[in-house]
Amino acid sequence: MSAATGAGVQWDARQGVRHDAGAGARRVLERCDELAAVSALAHGIERVHLSPEHACANALAAGWVRECGARTWTDQAGNLWGRLEGREPGLPALVLGSHLDTVTDAGRYDGVLGVLSAVEVARRLAPRAGELPFALELVAFSDEEGTRFSTALTGSSAVAGTWDEAWWERRDRDGVTVRRAAEEFGLDPSRIGEAARAPQDLVGYLELHIEQGPLLEAAGRPLGVVTSVAGARRFAGRVVGEARHAGGTPYPARRDALVGAAEVVLAVERLAVQRGGIATVGRLQAHPGGVNVVPGLVEFSLDVRAERDEDRDALVAAVEEHARGVCAERRLGFELTEVHRAAGVGCDADLTASVVAGIAATGDADPLRTWSRAGHDAMAVAAVTPVAMLFVRCEGGVSHAPAEAVTAADVAAGLDALEAAVLDVAARRA
Ligand code: GLV
Ligand code: MN
Ligand code: MN
Question: Which of 316, 341, 366 is the last residue before a domain boundary?
């Protein structure tokens, strides 16, 4: 933990733990509940990129950000921002945030907890923001999950200046392109470059996120430090056979795409376990989908991760080779098209030291360290500024499901740690 004096101000991570943390955590959790109601589903949560729910969530969060006295704006990628100036106007910014978009039938804390914790920490620090040696910015990224257009991290990639022009032509399930959705949202695709931030305008990025795994719970700790974030690769796959009469077609004549796809799915799990990686088929659709028709086509998704990108890529190659063999034996076609690739990133040593100091200020002097199996906006942001992350324990390690749960006590600890981490960054730069 560091303490330093700058412009007559003493910054010390330990100063962070002095609030009625219970009230802050309650406010954060109530706001998570309010955002959970902003959903495209009548029963359950779904808030996807460039949807009416995205606009509504941004508007709600913008109100909370403005309550802190921050200036707000939405950038050309649909990300919501807030800014409190530091001890002089125009200083580079330390950015706190996460994302507000969700998977389908989501929990209420993935991403949202990080955004609302950032807002709460800004609320606490606002009275002294004018003494900080940096501006404090808040961000709610627009598209971490990739639920709608099958490519993830587009909001944070735009901020990092790594927007891919090919993304404009990506289509959702209704055939709507990113370009059209952006225009309907009120954005101007020709100005996407304006969302990019310059490295010299940034101090770094801190993201609080629920763990989405069981390690903290097993260790009996509310908070943990993220050492690196694994980069996922995602694919759209097709197994191509021939649709035929389910009664009249003898087995030797069948080219059943679903039976072939089933063998591929089993191999995906087996190979991932054998190689210590993680691979998931999360979506699978048989066509034409008749009860009395041999499936002629299966479309499926494939998501592959590992701690090291080389191991992930080797797992992809093994899955592809095996799947081609299985399909060839069954006289089926096999196609695999990459739709998303993110490189794994290491968290910055100095910023991570501030996160450790932040957690230490809550009483855990030697926090648990882990790599993140889940993807985060921090991965994309790392292309433009140093990043660090802290995890908050979630019940049963459950995420991407309605059962996601956190305790108020853990959220309170997360708020204290995030605030103390910001103060530690200030101390190091003072
Ligand atoms: C994001 O939640 C991911 O890891 O897929
Ligand atoms: Mn997620
Ligand atoms: Mn997330």
Answer: 341
Does 416 sit in the ligand 1 pocket, CB within 6 Å? no
| Span 54-85, pLDDT tens digits | 999 999 999 999 999 999 999 999 999 999 99
What would the pLDDT profile of 152-176 be if each residue is shown by its tens digit?
999 999 999 999 999 999 999 999 9
CA 227 to chain centre: 16
62 lines ligand 1 (CB under 6 A): no
Q: What is the CATH number of the domain that holds 280?
A: 3.30.70.360
Same domain, 199 and 124: yes
Shared-domain flag, residues 21 and 123: yes
**Are 232 and 304 a contacting pair, CB within 8 Å?**
yes
Residues 351 and 286 in one domain: no
Which ligand neighbours the alpha carbon of 229 most closely? 1
Looking at all shown ligands, the one closest to residue 282's CA atom is 1
- Ligand 3 centroid to 110 CA: how many Å? 5
Q: Backbone dihedral region of 184: left (phi > 0), alpha (psi from -120 to 50 degrees) or beta?
A: alpha
Asked if residue 145 has its Cβ within 6 Å of ligand 1, the reply is yes
CA atoms lying within 13 Å on the CB side of residue 228 = 13
Q: What is the CATH number for 365?
A: 3.40.630.10
Q: Are strands 202-210 and 368-372 parallel, antiparallel or unpaired?
A: unpaired
Q: What is the pLDDT of residues 305-349, one digit of tens each?
A: 999 999 999 999 999 999 999 999 999 999 999 999 999 999 999
Structural domain for 88, as ranges? 3-231+343-429
In this structure, are 115 and 212 located in the same domain? Answer: yes
Co-location of 324 and 182 in the same domain: no
Q: Quick check: 220 and 363 in contact, CB under 8 A?
A: no
Q: Where are the alpha helices (DSSP H) in 209-256?
A: 215-219
Same domain for 74 and 167 = yes
Measured distance CA(19)–CA(400) in Å, rounded: 31
The whole-angstrom separation of Cα 200 and Cα 211 is 30
